[in-house]
Amino acid sequence: MAIRQDNSCTIEAIERIGEDYFRIAFSPRVPFGSRPGQFVMVRVSSGVDPLLRRPFSIHRVTAEGNFEILFRVVGRGTGLLSKMSVGDEVDVLAPLGTGFGEGGVRPLIVGGGIGVAPLLYLAEHYISEGKRPKLLLGGRSDRDLLCHDDFACLAVPSAYSTEDGTLGETGLVTELIKRELEPLDAAQRDEVSVHACGPVPMLAAVARLCVGYGVYCEVSLESHMACGVGACLGCIVKSIDDKNLRVCKDGPVFDATLIEWF
Amino acid sequence: MSEESKTTTTTTPNVDISVELGSLKLKNPLIAASGTFGYAHEFKDQMDPSVYGGISVKGLSLQPRTGNPMPRIVETPSGMLNAIGLENVGVDAFIRHKMGYLRTLDTVIIANFFGNTVEEYGECAAKLDGVEGIGALEMNISCPNVKAGGIAFGTDPVLATEVIKKVKSKSTLPLIVKLSPNVTDIRVMVRAAEQAGADIISLVNTFTGMAVDLDRRRPVLANVTGGLSGPAIKPLALRMVMEAVETATIPVIGLGGIVTSRDALEFLCLGASAVQVGTANFVNPTAALDILTGMKQYLAGLGVEKLSDFIGTFSR
């Protein structure tokens, strides 16, 4: 890969989605190609406090080479980002990490809360490859289920679950997965692949479930990290053979059977 | 003067920024600090690692290490704490798998290493000695996790002397001794390192610190404590580098919180013969390039033609 000499991006749009979720569109001065599941490292301050960049998965890309991130305001970094303005210049390292794999003919796209962020790009990609993705989205409450409209525009069939029952099924997203996979025979399950992003307990449960059904599953993990390129070793997860995997470089998307979950 | 060289002169001033630290010659005074630049290939999509005058690789030990449990980094005001725990591929795998790429770079490769015992330090140095492409050794005597003696190697002048002498007896490469700032009087350690045979001293490593998760009333880092780095430590590092320069007769490499060209020049004017850039690599992979450009512009603005004429020009 050639070195991107210029990481500056201009904010094209900032959209507030509900209480504390935001979507920002950037136009990079030097366009780059990316894969669904890859991420970017955004410098949220031009000074040294906060010091570190913040990682965000690529939420969507446009034909013109713009890209979007979707995030929840959880601290100072995301707070600063949410208060930026259209036209602001931001320094963004991109694209980083290893994204989602090819997937089966019928990919099941599974999101928990803000874990939906990389899944819109993934759904668009699978559709462009002639696959028939389905979205299963879970969250605490209807306020935490984002992007229905965007998936609806893509005509992606969807099912929802909320823990408080405000939208879709009451319960966890794993119940939706069971409902999808249970009726399938072995040959049908071979055509299915699961691609999940969300909190770790959810991903662990999804991974276990898929092993039980004999369905391939990959997960996109989140981690604090300093560099995003595999050098700081601050974003390690353990593999089943007790090796260190770097979320930023070896992931963020991993074959779920490689991860030592707990 | 050709058109081409005229253009070069206007964009980047023609200042000689090469430095000599005894027998160690660097094309420029910037060294990537150990632990912040991996084995260099990690950065090759973001920048050309040959921009650096030297690269100190992620600290090596005789056996590979997987490091501490997560979480092992946390951001702090203008800085970060890390408790990686010296995860590394081990010296043998380094020589077999990492040196190939490093040898292709136009920079001085500095093999940073550490051990649990005096003997391990010696064995590690012996393995690195004579490896084609390694220009210098940097021994880390400020390991937070060593068993025998613990951080004592870096805080006890008697132990430091013993381990430095052992390493010197095993290698003919220029030896940089990286000192810990977690001592009452850095001058004692500087004297001990120099008398034991160090060719060069580098300082400072990270300051021991911690972060508290108030809501859980628990440490943030699984290791409880970690090493503080980044701009937050620059004033502390400057003070210690000044004391080291005033004490030592051997060259001193300054580091601690360098982000900008002005930061680097502050250490150099104090008398550091070279500087290391650490945490800034995480924040801005092109930090080295930006610092070099700024440094040349600053020196040209002063009418200084050679960086060596600027080094040590600080006065109280």
Q: Which features would summarize this protein structure in a list?
A:
heterodimer, A: alpha/beta, Elongation Factor Tu (Ef-tu), domain 3, seven-stranded antiparallel sheet, B: 316 residues, TIM Barrel, eight-stranded parallel beta barrel, four-stranded antiparallel sheet, 11 helices, 16 strands, 20% strand, globular, disordered N terminus
What would your notes on this structure say?
The complex is a heterodimer of chains A (262) and B (316). Chain A is α/β, with parallel strands linked by helices and 262 residues long. Chain A is built from six helices and 16 strands. The mean pLDDT of chain A is 95. Chain B is of the alpha/beta class. Chain B contains eleven helices and 16 strands. In chain B, strands 3-4-7-8-9-10-15-16 form an eight-stranded parallel barrel, surrounded by seven helices. A four-stranded antiparallel β-sheet of chain B has the order 5-6-14-11, with no helix packed on it. In chain B, helix 6 (186-196) packs across helix 7 and helix 8 crosses helix 10. Chain B is globular and about 50 Å long.
